[in-house]
Specification:
The protein is α/β, with parallel strands linked by helices and 150 residues long. It is 29% helix and 16% strand.
Length: 150
């Protein structure tokens, strides 16, 4: 993770916070570890691509970067308590897009964060886009709660 992205993430993490991660893989695991270290109450992971047929068709490089290629983020890590559908993340205090930006984005993840989803989130929820911006719909990218590292 770039230094600017790490600083941005650390400035938004709070002890006792419920954190939602969208997209699994190495970045997800790094963000999860930082959230646990910061005292997050729970870290919830959503990876719609994990169950898709498309994930099974991806290249070996994709599998290498995403761990096992079918969800990547290990479920046994401390503080990682749930692996849920996107709708389950609407109640979190901090959402972080962690889908790897250097890899092709699976169709199951494209535009999964919509304005309708963001409308169900508390107004204080921040969404840090540390990964692939295409996880957010065009309209959702304009939401003032969406923050991109510089």
């Amino acid at each position: 993770m770039r230094d600017s992205a790490k600083k941005l993430l650390l400035s938004h993490l709070r002890a006792g916070q419920l954190v939602g991660l969208i997209g699994a893989g190495a970045l997800c695991e790094e963000v999860r570890a930082l959230a646990v270290e910061a005292g997050a109450a729970r870290v919830l992971v959503c990876d719609p691509a994990a169950a898709s047929e498309e994930a099974a068709d991806m290249s070996g490089e994709f599998f290498a970067l995403w761990g096992n290629g079918m969800g990547g983020c290990p479920l046994t890590g401390e503080g990682l308590e749930a692996y849920l559908p996107i709708e389950s993340l609407a109640a979190v205090g901090l959402l972080v897009v962690t889908a790897p930006p250097e890899m092709p984005l699976p169709l199951a993840l494209q535009g999964v964060v919509t304005t309708a989803f963001l409308a169900r989130c508390p107004p204080t929820t921040a969404l840090l886009c540390l990964g692939h911006a295409a996880v957010l719909s065009e309209e959702a990218r304009r939401d003032p709660r969406v923050i991109h590292p510089t």
